[in-house]
Amino acid sequence: MTRCGRSGWTAALGSVLTAAAVGLSGCADPPADPAADPARSAPASTVRSCGQELSFTEPPERVVTLDQSSTETLLELGLADRMVGTANLKTEVAAEYREDYARVPVLSPKLLTAEQLRAATPDLVVASFPAQFTADRVGSRQELAELGLPSFVSAVACPADNEPGMSPFDLLFSDYEALGRIFGIEDRAAALADEQRAALADAEKVGRAVAGEPSVLWLYSTFNGTPYVAGGTALPTEMSAALGARNAFDDVSEDWPEVSWERIAERDPEVIVVGDLSERGSPGDSAEEKIRLMREHPVMSQLDAVRENRIIEVPGIEMDPSVRSVHALELFAAGLRDLGYAG
Prior knowledge:
By secondary structure, the protein is of the alpha/beta class. It contains 13 helices and 12 strands. The strands form 3 sheets. Strands 5-4-3-6-7 form a 5-stranded parallel sheet. Strands 8, 9, 10, 11 and 12 form a 5-stranded mixed sheet that branches. The longest helix is centred in the middle third of the chain and has 22 residues, at about 185-205.
C-alpha cells in the first residue's frame, strides 16, 4: 500500500500544502513487481534514534536531509527516489553520487529553515547532528514529532543510545542498518556495513605495523587565521587509533575545538592531516591555504612536521562521520606508508 497523506503533519501545514503533497507524492499504485523496489513492500519497522522511538507502518517516501553527510548516506543506499530535498552542502558531492544528487531538489545551499522544511512536506527528516534541530533552524525534534514528522539523527552524535564500548565506526555502521530497517533495504544496508568493516580491518592491519604511536594533528579548518582541530570526541581520534597513531588533541573533550597555532606547536605533532574544503569557498578552507599558513607562521614553520612536509591531505568532509569516512582512513593509511611509518 502506498501511503497517501501524513495526517498530523499535513494537517498542521494547511490545506494548500496538503494538496501539494498529494500531487507530488502521486498516490499511484505500486510497481507491478515489488521486487523491483523492495522498500515498497517492506513491513512496518521501529528504530530508536537519539532518544526517540521512530515507528513506520511503511517506508518513508518523502525524505529531506539536512546536511551533506546524511545526503550522501542515503544516496549510497540507493534512496535518491525517496528524497524530496537536501541542504547545507559543504563541498562538492563525491563523484559517485553526482548523477543521483542531481535528481534531488536543493532546498537551500546553507542551513535549512523551518519554513523551507515545511514547504517540502516530508515524511522523514535525516541529519547527522542533533544541533540541526533548533528553534532558529528547522525546529526541535519534539516540535516536529508533535506535527507527525519523525527525525532520524546519526547514532555517532548520540552514543548514549547505544551499547557501551561501541566505536564511532560501529555507530556509523548501525546508522546504515537502522536506515535499512526503516526503508526495507536491510540487505543493501548490511552489505554497505560489511564492505566498510572490511576497509576498517584493512586499515587496522596497516596500524599494527606502525611503531611508536606517532602523534597526529587533524586540521579541519581555519577562520580568520585561527585553526580548528579534531578533539578527543571527533572521529579522527578513532582513525588515529586504528592506524596505531594518537590524535594530538585527544585530551580535549570536544569534536572540533578552536586552538592557537602556538598551542599546536607545543604539542609538536609528528604528522599533520589537513582537511581540504576548497569548494566551500571561505578564506583558508583549501588544504593549500592551510599549508601555506603553517609554513608562513613564525612558530608552526619551525615544527619538524612542517619543515619535513609530513603532511597528509584528505577531503575535509570525510573527517566527520559519514559514508565517506573510510575513504579518509584509507588516505591516512596510504600517507603513513608514504611517510615511512608503516611498511
